[in-house]
Structures are given as structure tokens and as C-alpha cells.
């Protein structure tokens, strides 16, 4: 048998369920699974978006590499519990005074 042929991985029931959830959330057919953790795809506007395997929409950006790198970083910070160190509120969005 030719060792250069890729074997197709069979999906578990959990993976099938996760894919169904992502499809319900709008995951397009052209999405690529990255690190077996999240999907990335090109939007109709030429941007790139990501979504976790659980169906949570993550980031949208100009380049595929940038979106992949920042999604990895964001998920790493969430896992380590350090995301709050990089997060701040710039404006409260509350209008003061009487309108």
C-alpha cells in the first residue's frame, strides 16, 4: 500500500453532533478545521472568520493567518484563565444626563 495516501478519519458521534451544531450556527461548507479545535473560513466579503467545534463564533479578520493566530491565542488565554489581563473597557456606553 502507498504510504503517501492519507487515511480518512472516521467521525465519532460526539464530533458529528458538534458539526451539526456548527452547521446550525452558519458554518459554511468551505470551512477548514484547525488544530482539531476550531474552524476557519473565508466570508463572502473576503474576510476570514473562526468558530469553535462547539459552535461559538470567535473572530473575524483580514488575513487567514492573523485570524488563526489570534483565535489560538484567545483560546489559550481562556484555558489558562489569563484573558482578563488583556481585557479592558474603553467606554461604558452609558449616556449621562437627561435626554
Describe the overall structure.
The chain has 2 helices and 4 strands. The protein has a domain at 13-81. It has a 4-stranded antiparallel beta sheet, with helices on one face. The protein has helices at 13-24, 64-80, and strands at 32-34, 38-42, 48-52, 57-61. It is α+β, with helices and mostly antiparallel strands. A hairpin with a 5-residue loop joins β2 and β3.
Features:
single chain; 99 residues; alpha+beta; four-stranded antiparallel β-sheet; 2 helices; extended
Question: What's the gist of this structure?
Answer:
The chain has 99 residues and is of the alpha+beta class.
List the helices and strands and how they pair.
Elements: H1 13-24, E1 32-34, E2 38-42, E3 48-52, E4 57-61, H2 64-80
Helix vs. strand class: alpha+beta
Low-confidence stretches: none
Q: How far apart, in Å, are the first and last alpha carbons?
A: 76 Å
Rough shape?
extended
Order of helices and strands: HEEEEH
Oligomer: single chain
Amino acid at each position: 500500500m502507498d504510504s503517501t495516501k492519507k487515511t480518512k478519519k472516521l467521525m465519532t458521534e460526539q464530533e458529528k453532533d458538534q458539526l451539526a451544531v456548527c452547521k446550525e450556527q452558519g458554518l459554511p461548507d468551505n470551512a477548514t478545521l484547525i488544530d482539531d479545535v476550531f474552524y476557519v473560513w473565508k466570508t463572502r466579503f473576503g474576510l476570514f472568520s473562526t468558530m469553535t467545534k462547539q459552535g461559538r463564533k470567535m473572530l473575524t479578520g483580514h488575513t487567514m493567518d492573523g485570524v488563526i493566530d489570534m483565535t489560538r491565542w484567545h483560546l489559550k488565554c481562556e484555558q489558562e484563565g489569563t484573558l482578563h489581563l488583556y481585557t479592558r473597557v474603553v467606554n461604558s456606553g452609558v449616556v449621562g444626563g437627561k435626554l
